[in-house]
Amino acid sequence: MWMAMKAKLSLANLPTRIQHLSRWSAECGKNIYVKRDDQTGSEWSGNKIRKLEFAVAEAVAQGCNLLITCGGIQSNHCRATVSVATYLGMRSAVLLRISEQPPLDGNYFLDRLMGADVRFCTRDEYRDHRAEIMQEMADGYAAQGFKPYIIPEGASFGVGTLGYYFAMKEIVAQEREMGITFDTVVVATGSGGTLAGLQLSNLLNGYGKRVIGVCVCDDAAYFQEIAARISRDALPYLVALGELSQDRADRFAASLKPTDFELFEEYVGIGYALSRPEELEHIHRMAKLEATVFDPVYTGKATYGMVNELRPGGRLRSSENILFIHTGGLYGLFPVSRSFQL
Ligand SMILES: *Cc1c(COP(=O)(O)O)cnc(C)c1O
Question: Which CATH number characterizes residue 109's domain?
Answer without folding.
Answer: 3.40.50.1100
